[in-house]
Amino acid sequence: MTAGDLSGPGPSEENGQPPVNTATASARTLADPGTPFAVLDVHKALRNIERLGTRAARLGVTLRPHVKTAKSLDVAALLHDGTPCPVTVSTLAEAEAFADGGYTDITYAVGIDPHKLPRVIALLRRGVRLRILLDSAEQATFVAETSRQAGLPIPAQIEIDCDGHRGGLKPDAPGLLEIGRILHSADCLDGVLTHAGESYVAYGTEEQGLAAKNERDTAVAAAERLRAAGLPVPTVSVGSTPTAHAAEDLTGVTELRAGNYVFFDLVMAGLGVCRVEDLALSVVVTVIGHRPEYGWIVTDGGWMAMSRDRGTAVQAQDQGYGLVTDLAGHLIPDLVMTAASQEHGTLTTRDGATPPELPIGTRLRILPNHACATAAQHQGYHVIDSAAHDTAPTPAIKAFWPRVTGW
């Protein structure tokens, strides 16, 4: 999909997503909608998508993008020239919305519980191959029993812990084979999946490369152990945005997952995975006040617009709640969003010097720490194309793309 495809209704308008309100629909430039609102630069998103797509092809693995960051059918249409591709989701609401949009190969990468299985079965009956995730014999048992009762295998992947970040089993865990056998008895065993969550504190290509190698080695070791016990492992799934961009050898892996890479954010820039100029998501805010005695510029964009995420606080360069640009996307030197209350944002200079002269009513864009968290604060994206207005002080809005919400 190219920027030229932005006119007319997108996938979201054809699949029951929330309607666009009149004010949003009539907006023509970033000077028009009420602030704060989210902005997606489609040119940068397409560039980010191409970068990882090319890498996955070189590594010889299927790329299964995680749509939890954008949660948008319209954004997903950028991934594969407008045609449905394999995707990962973090909620069943996403799975259902993407199924409505024609996606039939979906991995639900959050541990399953019994009350969600009727929705899983419903999607399977619609012809969607929805894979679920688990890491205990208890889960495997109720999945296998539900599959038998429904007369329909539920594809299930065993979550493998590669770095102690969250859930999963170590590849040598005593329960791994038991879980595999329970799932296989109901024809449900689909493979193994791991996520190198600790790569989000891996700085530079060397550390990220080691995390990627460990991620691969751990997943492959688990798969080989299951296969040695006579169990099928068709899928070996790995991925995080840092490791996906650092992996050099994915021998034994079948698919690569990542999601943040479509938008990127300041955490990823701080790790060296991307540049600040690659960030495709921002939030437009308006200057509503000044406190010169404190060196503050006050905006109408607080943590309800940006989220509470302070992911860069542990990095070498703390970016506060976000970096500040003008409406055209040019960074304002040394100006940072350093504090936030619910509906107020505070901008200050890094060195405490007098901030630039920004009159009340001035519109600015804030680049976020964590794209997933910031995007979740908004109903959708006002889409711009920086390739089409490099010299325009106020970018034109090409479209509005709604987000999927709920669980």
UniProtKB/TrEMBL annotation:
The answer, when asked if Lyase is one of the entry's keywords, is: yes
* Entry keyword set: Lyase
Any keyword Lyase?
A: yes
Gene3D superfamilies for this protein = Alanine racemase, D-serine dehydratase-like domain
**Which SUPFAM superfamilies does the annotation name?**
PLP-binding barrel
All residue ranges annotated as the D-serine dehydratase-like domain in the record: 280-385
Supply the InterPro entries for this chain. Answer: Ala_racemase_N (IPR001608), D-amino_acid_metab_enzyme (IPR051466), D-ser_dehydrat-like_dom (IPR026956), D-ser_dehydrat-like_sf (IPR042208), PLP-binding_barrel (IPR029066)
Renumbered to this chain, region (Disordered) spans 1-22
Q: Which domain of life is it from?
A: Bacteria
- Indicate the transmembrane segments per the record: none
Pfam short name (any one): D-ser_dehydrat
Say which family it is in.
Belongs to the DSD1 family.
What's the protein here called? DSD1 family PLP-dependent enzyme
Name its species.
Streptomyces luomodiensis
